[in-house]
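From the shared-data thread, chain only:
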Amino acid sequence: MTRMTLDDLVVPDTEVSAAAREVASTYLSPGLFNHSVRAYVWAAARGTVRGIPFDPELLYVASMLHDLGLTAAFDSHTVAFEEAGGHVASVFAAGAGWTARRRERLSEVIIRHMWLEVDASTDPEGHLLANSTATDVVGANLDDFDADFRREVLARHPRLDFSADFLACFQAQAARKPDSSAAGMVRVGLENLMADNPLDAVS
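Structure, as tokens:
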């Protein structure tokens, strides 16, 4: 991969992006908040280096809000957390004045981040967020990033108690919603996959 630094990434400087970051920092634990920031970083880095055109604001807002459905304030006992998060994000975007289609896209990106595969040609933001969250949660495709970049990301946005917090959230989702995507991940060994994530061993 081409060498890069965090300063090479485009971070949208818009009112909506700032508001999404504020919402995320208010409702997410510090570990989950930093995960959301890293989700954007890994996604934007991958898109930049691989030449995948993406909408920075859409990707950033989706990254900030994609785990709101795991929080006590926005958890749902009837739908998967990513669907609940998609609904919350759509309401947020409506308040921000986004068009109906842009709100729909935001919801799609958040819902699809739990898909095993998202086509980059039809949904670049969904593709990038799905891959970046897999990178951050279980260390998937870490070879896309050189060691210096990984260390820089983790130094600026440390993992804190993310792994324990995230696993507990998914286990709670699985217990209450056995047909959800989170439950499926728990069944296939999420705990062991997370334990083997090299990002937790980066120094």
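Residues 30-50 form the longest helix (21 residues).
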